[in-house]
Design brief:
A hairpin with a 2-residue loop joins strand 1 (about 60) and strand 2. This protein is mainly alpha-helical and about 210 residues long. The protein contains eight helices and two strands; from the N terminus they run H-H-E-E-H-H-H-H-H-H. The two termini are about 30 Å apart.
Amino acid sequence: MHIPDGILPASLCIAGYGATGAATWYSLRQINRDRNPQAQIPKASLLTAAFFVASWIHIPVPPVSVHLVLNGLLGTVLGYYAFPAILIGLFFQAIMFGHGGLTTLGVNAILMGIPALIAYQIFQMRHWFKTQWGNITLSLFAFLAGGIGLGLAAAIFFVLIITTIPGELDVTTEKNAIYGLMLAHIPLMLIEGLFTAMLVIFLNRVKPELIGD
């Protein structure tokens, strides 16, 4: 899921940093509208750490393996805090693990952070049905937010990579590998959707204020 250095053209990397700057500014502006923005920082820090280590957890999906991303989960639980949390997590993944790269940090933040914000909006749609369906609606929209968040990130990754494969590579082989990798993310969408739903149901039972209004 992480795009490493040297894959994308310089113009796209620069555009990624510009878009990330705009998305970070917008997210921070929304956060500052909260009555007490600092109250959510411990939760955001905890989930940033979870996002940071998630890429080490690989799941075998023959013939390849994929790793957890959790961007949909962060969007579901953190709302607008998710984008800066993902940006910070990606930065430390790049410099400590070599996942992704510093030149592609902006692009990686967009391809994982924007779907996280969309996941948040999907989760908010539960309010349309809250009075009629209760916990069933809560778990359903958490599942959709977790799964779709990852699915959108995989789709953006697919489009960026498939349209910018360097000419010196074996294009057919690279495309087949990318198609296989994308198919492997379908079961991961189900796993992350289920994990997000389970976590949200748990938080709703023990500390409902953590999942917000």
